[in-house]
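Q: Two folds, back to back.
A: First:
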Amino acid sequence: MLSVPPPPVSTFLRRALAAALLAHAAAGAFALERFDDVRAAWRPSDIQVLDRAGEPLQRLRTDATVRRGRWVPLAEVSPALRTALVMSEDKRFWEHSGVDWRAVSAAAWANLWHTRTRGASTITMQLAGLLDEDLRRAGGGRSLGQKIDQAYTATQLERGWRKDQILEAYLNLVPFRGELVGIDALSRTLFGKAPHGLQAREAAVAAALVRAPNASPARVAQRACEVLRAMQPAGRSAGPPQASPRPLGGQRGHEVPSVGATFSDCAAVDMFTAAALQRRAFEASEGIAPHLARQALRAARETNAGGAPVPTELHTTLRAPLQRFALATLQRHLRELRDRNVEDGALVVLDNASGEVLAWVGSSGELSAAREVDAVLAPRQPGSTLKPLLYAQAIAERRLTAASLLEDSSAQIATPGGLYIPQNYDRRFKGPVSVRTALAASLNVPAVRTLVMVSPEGFARQLRAAGIALAQSGDYYGYSLALGSAEVTLLQLANAFRTLANGGRFSPTRVLPPAAGEAPAFAAALDPRAAFIVGDILSDANARVRTFGPDSVLGTRFWSAVKTGTSKDMRDNWAVGWSQRYTVGVWVGNAGGAPMWDVSGTSGAAPVWAELMRFLHAREPSRAPAPPPGLRQAAVRFGDWSGQPIEAARGEWFIAGTEQPLFALEGIAAGAGPAGEPPPARITAPADGTLLALDPDIPPRHQRVRFEADAAGAGAQWRISGHTVARGPRAQWLPWPGRHVVELADAQGRVLDSVRVEVRGAGVAPGRGGPPPATH
């Protein structure tokens, strides 16, 4: 085909198009947006979540329909990209006034001869289409009226905006590949860097995507190769024209700035483009507080319901240095526990006075197979960590004092579902102990006996008052509620301990800063005197010696109160406690519920709790709270029938009116028998009428029945159906089916006590006329 160069645009054509623009504009004036308004209305597809001091914590995706980054000033866009874009889309951008008349005439001439050209749409005209939906290209292209409107709008933009503002807005509003809009989202997604760092090859690919966003990688690479050729020194620059001491061709010329690279062969560009288009470096969320960010966003949306949109920068109550330390400490400790089948963990730090969350780690991150699960809010069984609230309630109701004696021995409590037989963590019983020892040493049986006094439903009401919302009624859980059979969240549990730290006053936690003058709304949840006594017990290192030893990780150099807990089958391990200013809660376990191996109350969550407390109080003291009104401290002593003290004499705290000088087992004051002799021995386990069912799938040696007598049975002997099977206060019996009478006899054979038990199911047959021997 004969190639005929287009003639220069005629005066007639220019006047005709100008008249068309004026006539079309007369039908409806265009409301020109200001550049500052367009920039202010820009909303990224994610938000920046900041700590209380404005330090970034997390970037969080909030718009799933499109991907936009932040608004990038033109000065922060690389010269290579500006050059590539102008050379690709609008070579005379810096010269025309919105409409490139030379390109218009070339396009008209090409249409006449049915040839293909670049088109006459300038960057300014394209920006007009991005600002006004009515001017955007439809599936069949723009109509003549749309084209005239677009050209008119472009001329108006050129009159109201500077060239650099037009180019800046275009770079931020132009759609690229797929969901990507704006140069920030494109640069960070495909190239993993900010726009100011784009080099020539990357800039060429970006410019090629403007022309054909969804083209094949090969087509994009071909176009990028053409852009790279045009960007060579023989081409023209993307900067505004500069006066040249040596004009080119007698006209004003301008130098071409270096774009940081020279052209290479198209094969390399093709490989680079294919790799870039597959990359997704711009993660939906990144930072050190992903779970807290979601909670903060939810709280902000609830606060702004029906009002203003959530700001692109969201301030929270967190402390970034504390959050980083907490996350690193948890991950380091969990790595040390990997050989014990521990994968996940979570922690939360609260400010006692305000309820503000200072640190929130919802998972172990890269160590977890369920890193998206927020374990701060996941319901879990809390184990013994509910005991402080239970004893606080019993003390507040004057059922117990800190010096009251509870029996830590085998107990079989009748329930509608059968006998409930609580056990201690170490499977050993301590005999009579004070409430202080029972709570600090985390003994289970005394806690269950205390719940019997309070009642499960009464305790459930107390838990709800402290902010722990149970899924069922107290009667549903029964007496196992004392040992943490209900499910609670770490945030609820930590805030309940914060209630104890605040003298029994409850208020909700918060992750967003309060408004000016806003104060926490406290509500009375517990007697402040009982809360003080429980805190005093949990800070008593001597009282926890029986279980945790004299040099426990729970001890701190400053005042603190702490309680650990382990749920059934070692599935959850907790450490929750408070100091004068902070409450810290830690959970470790597995998100899938798998049991841990050989993790105790002091090897699981407690070390993380202790490290966090030391970090918080590295330069901040923590002093013991002052006792509230209505408390008295009195000297107490303890005794049993033998005259030996059960516990050492000490000073103890009492609610006024409940104090007494002596705490002893029943029968001490009046004497146990003639001439002050000790009472006869009694069987404490099993209970009379116990029904035992043998499981044929469990080896018989693992189904032994434990016999126990009180302290007076030291020299007694156990007999079953007339046969002596063991001696001493404790024994284990390998049962066989049938009804049996278990007798406790003294050394002379006199029966001191007896109970009846029935064994059902397949069992071990008695050998040679007698029962199998028992094992001590």
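A: Second:
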Amino acid sequence: MAGEDGNVSNTISGGVFFQQVVQGRDITVVLPPTIVPALSGLPSPSSTFTGRDTHVEELLHELAPREEQQAMPTAPQPSRIAVAGLAGVGKTELVVQVAARALLEPGWFPGGVLFVDLFGYDPERRLSPERALDGFLRALGIPGEHVPNELQDLQRLYRSVLAAFAGKGRRILVVIDNASSADQAAPLLPTDGMTVVLITSRHTLDIDARLHDLNVLDTDASIVLLHQALQQARGPADTRVQDAPDAASAIGDLCAGLPLALRIAAALLADTPTRPLTSLARALQAEHSRLDRLRREDRAVRAAFDLSYRHLSNASARLFRLFPINAGPDLSVESVAALADLDDYTAEEILQDLNRAHLIETSGSIWGRWRMHDLIRLYATAHLKQEGREKQIAARSRLLERYRTMASAAGSHLTPDSGGPSSPLFTNREKALEWLENERANLVAAVTTAHETEAATTAASLAFSLAAFFEQHRYFADWITVTTTALAIFQQASDHQSTGRAVVNLGIAQRELRQFDAAVMLLQTAADAFSETGDRRDRAMALDALGVVRREMRQYDESIDTHAEAAAIFQEVQDLRGQARALNNLGSAWGEMHQPGKAIPILRQALSIMRATGDHRREAMALANLGAALRKAGQFEQAITLYGEAITRLRDTHDRHGEALALNNRGTALQHVQQFPEAIKDHHQAADIFEKAEDLHRLANALGNLAGAYSGDEQHTIAAEISAQALKIHRQLAQANFAVNAPELARTLCLAAWVRRNGRHDLAAALTMAEESVAIYRGLGSETSLVLSAHLRMALALQADILDLLGRHQQGRADPPQGPASR
């Protein structure tokens, strides 16, 4: 694209573009110009870290780029480094300290760091390789609709992305924490030989890695850690460690040199500044004697846990026991309050107590969120039975009800024109989105772990509250996961209406992934089921969604029939909003068939209903669709005016994606009236929005239209470069699913050829593009399709015209070509 200063750049910034399915394909990568370090949130290093200098130096040496390694010149640099050791020995802290220091070294890891905790030893939270890879790919900038579902495809795409970054001098450090098996870790391992991965596990994994065994701290280091932790908590005035070195040594030995146990011991001492170290040493010794059948290291951790737990107040102990009820990775203060039936202030006070005892810790960089070490979580779960079944059920129900209420409230800000007011629980859309992002993992876990619980129906209803969020922010894997779980729950409960609604949501999710065949099957199934149960309004909703899929598949006759039936049902059940939506989609289908005479009156009717019902967001969409129909009818000035109204309303309702659609279409109308500078501005804005929304399909279309505008403005070199960008993206999309994306590829080939023909630029390449476009259209059977046959004739005319320019005149060629149709 061209910048404001007129300089030209071939790079589309802010994204990494791949095809969706990579099996059997080469992968072409366009990297962004800059990468934000700490891509996936490395935890903060502890300020009390000691006794690991040798390990730190060894790991840093192995992480350093080859040219910076001085010692052991004949030893190959490892690309996989595994740190193994006992639970609580400090594996995570070691790799976090090392990673943080490595990131500060210039040129070592300019691409940043990816971090994931696999929770390998926690059966409730254990992260599958698929989920971990999904998170990594999103952190690397892969759009949601291009993240595959199958492990093999996820693995191949992930490794190709890392290799591309490394090849461009943007090496990334991958940190995989808490892996329980080679099967869990292996799919996350890079294979390019340049990307380095640090792995921690309690086991020595068979993953072809350089091994580092991490042992317990010796007595001196244990004493130093105990002293550091006390000094941090109480300041330099606390001299208990210096005053009682023998007792400090005994505590270090009784804690078995495990940093986790030592920190808990220090927390116990910090809570009671007058308690001598000898008192704690005696207490630890007593606990050991009661657990003498266990291994020494296990005794140390269990003894520390027991002492810390017994030191808690009743309220703190109760909250500690309830904490593992949440199936997700962490809890906010407000969620803790709901879980324990407390006010927020009291909940926060108790959380601070548990944090001081090192029984919980802060979660990431966001204050007010808390998590448990997996060992402590298992310990707390063992004590949960003290609450009794009814109290556990009540606590889980309170938490799920909070999630359901807050998710529903947040959803009302995402769909403000759904028939009711936006919830006052959030001041604005931004706050609602912030809450949804922070709680996403918890919400997904709440649904997916609820199938066999007494609160299954409450959890399943979350799936509906989250639908708009997942759709608008392209979390399609999460959407499919929670909806599939909810579907099973509703089926088990014989809730036919909710079952049908869940199937509709699954169909829409598949449509957004451009898996059109699967979407058609799901939506048709739902429509038929609603017909059998007599749910007329729900049938209309399923049909309307089905019509959109048919339109995307260019099955216009079926799309028109489906939308017409949906509109009739909505009118029958007196659902004006539904009727207007169906009419809007019906008019849009007629417009795409290039029959504006039929589209315009239908769209005017939809617009009138939307204005009467106050559906402002969809009113804007109807304005944009009406503008498109008027543009195709040659009424360009009217179309431009309507697009302007639509853009204003879409901005008012914070619908950035809809705004981009309207901007892109207004740009094409402006081209028809020779207002090329204004068209360029609109297409640029649209492309920027689509890029940020990670909508590659529409980004490529906007870039193609932008190229046409530049060509019309006689800026042919820029036009050729931008059309090449659009063509590259469409080729990648076609590799993923040729049947779905081939028409757009053919159209973009035609446009790229037309731009070069206009500028008399590389006519041989232009001819090749036009010929390929013709071949694709013919392969699609375009002679039998009214719309595609028009595009085929355009491509043939362009091909013949370029042959003329090359001096190979064809007899009886078609009329002089016009620009390729814009969308």
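Q: And?
A: Residues 570 and 579 are 5 Å apart (CA to CA).
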